[in-house]
Amino acid sequence: MAARKMAAKMAPKMAAEVPDSVLLRVLALLPLRDRLRAARVCRRWRQLVQDRVLWADVDLSPHKLSSKILWQLVRHRLGDSLRTLRVRGALLAGGRERLLTPALLAALAKRCPRLTRLCLAEADLRPLPYESFPDSITVLELSCCEIPAAWFCGSEAQALPRLQHLVVHKVPAFSNQHLLNISSRNRLKTLTLSGTYRVTDAGIQSAAPHLEELQRLVLRHCVVTDSALHFIGRHMKHLRFLEISSAYSLTNMGLACLAALKCLEMLHLDHCDKFSPDAIAALCRALPQLRNLKLDGADFGDEAMGKIQASLPNCSFSHTL
To answer: How far apart are CA 46 and CA 49, in angstroms?
Structure first.
């Protein structure tokens, strides 16, 4: 008991001897709520909490936010050091309050001119014009959001002129037309589509000629067939990373189309049940830059797996059931 009281008395003195650089590292590890509470400890800690370093990457997604609280953060905490912002709405919880508004996004663009990555989850974005997003954004991630049919279209197509990286996860309204509009107006380098069941072979076919500079493509739980792989192999010659997951209609014929991707360095196939070990091995031999092959959910047996691995002398290989 006496030792505990002595330690409590010594703690402030010990904290005072810790360099600012060390305290900043500790504060950076704290969740945002705890970091703001730390600002109440003393004047020195309040100044440290306001340091630009701590406000470069702000994750608000664990917190239930109101529009009022978000406005306060934009006005009093977020500034020109902000690079990444993550925000979660209340769409899945049945919330009706509009968390993001054009006025708030305009204030965010003015206060945070260096914001490059915006991650939105569970947000109802249907009342929000696409053109209201800050022009500085190069990375846009949408997860479990609702978007209007007009996004990426018409006069709004000039929004986000610097966009290079797009992640769309379980956004029901995202369609072939959305994919065509955004790919034809932005020079995308990476694209992730996950659970976008409205994107089909026709969407990949129309967008592929505009995605010739794409370096990373991820297709998870998408309704695509061999036809989509044909247009990927035909147009996306600069791909370095390709992941295809849970595309149960793909066959060896489509897989062979990927042999045209001579720059491909990493290939990840997950639960593509109709691919044979021989077809996979043949594809890998045709890819001179391939350095990593990952097969998940494929029950080929040890002999077949050994055959695939033997055909890849310069490539790391991993496999999970």
So the answer is: 5
Q: Which residues contact 4 (CB under 8 A, 6 or more apart)?
A: none
- Closest C-alpha among 66, 62, 137, 59 to residue 105: 137
Task: Give 150-176 pLDDT, tens digit per residue.
Answer: 887 755 456 788 999 999 999 999 999
CA 250 to chain centre: 25
Crossing angle for the helix pair 67-76 and 102-111, to the nearest 10 degrees? 20
- CA–CA dist 149, 129 (Å, integer): 11
Q: Which residue in the block uniquely carries the two structure tokens 């109709």?
A: 274
The neighbouring-strand residues paired with 218 are 192, 243
88 exposure class (CB count in 10 Å sphere: 0-12, 13-18, 19+): buried
In this prediction, residue 2 carries a pLDDT of 46
Residue 197 to residue 220: CA distance in whole angstroms: 10
**Where are the strands (E) in the chain, listed by range?**
57-59, 84-88, 117-121, 139-143, 165-169, 190-194, 216-220, 241-245, 266-270, 292-296, 316-320
Q: What does the pLDDT look like over 251-301, one tens digit per residue?
A: 999 999 999 999 999 999 987 778 888 899 899 889 999 999 998 877 777
Say what the pTM is.
0.87
| 209 within 8 A of 237, measured Cβ to Cβ | no
In this structure, what are the phi and psi dihedrals at residue 87, rounded to the nearest 5 degrees? Answer: -135, 140
Question: What is the token pair recorded at 132?
Answer: 């209201």
